Amino acid sequence: MNWTEAELDERFGPFGGRYVPETLIPALDALTVAYAEAVADAAFCEELESLARHYVGRPSALTFAPRFSERIGASVWLKREDLNHTGAHKINNALGQALLAVRMGKRRIIAETGAGQHGVATATVCARFGLECVVYMGEEDMRRQALNVYRMRLMGATVVPVTTGTRTLKDATTEAIRDWVTNVEGSHYIIGSVVGPAPYPRMVRDFQSVVGAEARAQLLAATNRLPTTVVACVGGGSNAMGIFAGFVDDSGVELVGVEAAGEGLETGNHSASLSMGTPGVLHGALSYLLQDANGQVHPAHSISAGLDYPGVGPEHAYLKDIGRARYEAVTDREALDGFALLARMEGIVPALETAHAVAWIDRERSRWSSHDLVLLCVSGRGDKDVAQVSDLGAVST
Amino acid sequence: MQSTSATTSSDALSRHLEALGARRRRALVVYITAGHPSPDATIALMRALEQAGADVIEVGVPFSDPMADGPVIQASSQRGLDHGVSFDRALDLIATAAVSVPIVLFSYLNPVLAAGEDALRRAAAAGVHGILITDLPVGSDRVRERWLGTGPLAFVRLVAPTTPTERMREIAAHGSGFVYLISRLGVTGAREDVASELPDVIARLRTATALPVCVGFGISTPEQAQIVGRMADGIVVGSAIVRAAGTSIDAAAELTRTLRDALDSA
């Protein structure tokens, strides 16, 4: 295939692009220009850094995990995005995009959310800047994440239940795009992951790349070494792209993304688009996708609402195809064990999403040796998941 | 950039529309979703709508995630999927109906890509004249746009109210059959009024292309058909027809007749 320069700018290898209704093209053009101007503007960067420090609490800590390390026989370090304001990495992107929206004069913000962490982060920054906030959330996810629904409403956001399709993140995203097509002139759509049409995947990665940049510097300061392996969970893939961004040029560093195998890859009830999907177009981008032979999107399944998505960011598709990153999958059951494991051994309750990455590291115990240095992105804290896990009775206490 | 498609008049669809224009007849383009309310009904609907005065029939190939569609067409797509209607099943229905008015497929890129390299040839063989992809704007994917633009079907492109005039030219240069002008921001679905900016948008579009211009999104009533019919070469009615088809074939045919009369007296 021969791509033009403009197309290449929108892509990662063959993946990405802008597969959207014509109505949105001028808005994407304007966003691309506004973003490029913003990041070249020292005042914008200073304001973002200042808010990241004083409002979000960056830099987030890098924590050595002594008991988990002893268990697996390698050194494990945790990048603590769970300690951010609002409890996850999502705020890094929401903050950057909200500042951009203000700069563009857009006072109405649209967002989609799965687990609710991105919705909460968006509602938070909208409250901070006095912006109107409308969050689309699948009805099923609203049930699973009632606490986050309350938090969003408390901060003044309107949470719209989505009752179409599987009533999860996929359908919430479709509904958010419909809102944007309708209200494009005064609204900015804050996509929560490295998905969607260009420039979103690159822009969201850039706003999340602070995770990898900090972790690299912190680990070098603490150990004078780069990690052997960087591990992060992948739904849409924003925390993974954020931390990978710090190491993608370090060719000796292994990058591992952990997807949700749900009830098991063989059952078909999973969210492992990179492991099991084929290239297809959803929500504006070409990437790996769970779909049937007729090109209909296959419903995803994961115990974790944040990973319950049949697509994945196009840059992950590219990193997989060129062999720079590898992608593994962990079942619901294994993730629950990972959830309990980090809680018991380190006193850190991870998000169920993060728990997938914990579980993979633990499952791979036989591959680690004492000089290995494993960097795990703790994408968020598990408070939001405690009620669900408790109801399942899935973890003995 | 080089045009990827034929110019005006070289495809059967634009010739058909130009012939209508020569007779001062405004084109009535009606949309139905393949498989809604059932595959058999789709066949009967195509025939009934032709009889009732439709000039072009758009047949939606259902997609699981129709992000450009409102609630009515979303629900009809789900119905079609529930009946197992795929790209090729939709072609079967079209071939069986064997109507004489042109058929334009309306879908999203993913189900069309999944149908394979040979999909456009199969569609033409089934009696399809044109294809419209809602999520493949001009310049988004040169490779796949070329596939669609150089194939056996007219490649109908969309223009939005937000489209700058310069981009309208580029869109028209890379399309054929007719230009589908989206009358307002938003998704498909019936509205009461006509967008106030429509005359200006049509005027801008006329400076950008000689292709016939059909206006859709939000048109459902005879009054709207008349107003828009005075400005455009044709109108597209989707959700209102789909909703009527959910009631009965007769209801959809009756609405089509009413719209026909309104257009003819515009």
Can you describe this structure?
The complex is a heterodimer of chains A (397) and B (266). Chain A has 2 domains: 151 residues, Rossmann fold (3-Layer(aba) Sandwich); 216 residues, Rossmann fold (3-Layer(aba) Sandwich), CATH 3.40.50.1100. Chain A is 45% helix and 18% strand. Chain A contains 16 helices and 14 strands. In chain A, the strands form 4 sheets. Chain A has a 6-stranded mixed beta sheet with strand order 3-4-14-9-10-13, sandwiched between helices. Chain A has a 4-stranded parallel beta sheet with strand order 7-6-5-8, with helices on both faces. In chain A, helix 6 runs parallel beside helix 8. The N and C termini of chain A lie far apart (56 Å). With 266 residues, chain B is α/β, with parallel strands linked by helices. Chain B has one domain: TIM Barrel. In chain B, strands 1-2-3-4-5-6-7-8 form an 8-stranded parallel barrel, surrounded by 8 helices. In chain B, strand 4, helix 7 and strand 5 form a beta-alpha-beta unit. In chain B, helix 8 packs across helix 9 and helix 10 packs parallel to helix 12. The longest helix of chain B is centred in the last third of the chain and has 16 residues. The N and C termini of chain B lie far apart (38 Å). The relative contact order of chain B is 0.18. The interface between A and B is large, with 42 and 43 residues.
